[in-house]
Amino acid sequence: MIPMDEQLIPVLDLLAQRAADPALARTAQELRAVYDAELPRLRTLGQQAGIPAENPHKGHKMPGLVDADRLAVISAAQGAEFDRQAAECLREHLAQLVSLAKSEIQNGNSPTVKAIARSVVDTRTQVTV
Length: 129
Description:
globular; Ferritin; mainly alpha
């Protein structure tokens, strides 16, 4: 989740600044606040579990992960096309995050991590994009 969240933040910031649809801008601002609160907790858990701080997925093309190419396409778009590109990216990200969280709920061992996964499912499935 850490790389997924970190790599979505630039898209959320762009949406908050440039979305033609005010509801989309508000959604981005609300999600940014969720991620700002969630990321430090995830990083702490990662450190406790011995997970390297370096992003092992950097440069990879994976579902829900915003790579540099995708960010460039979104950044270059304007108006309704910008909203469409960014919203599509956001929907893909949220769907993949929920999928990963559900997998953790079913297969994980840590009660703390499973609680975060439940929170992710709850918060991300409520988002309308």
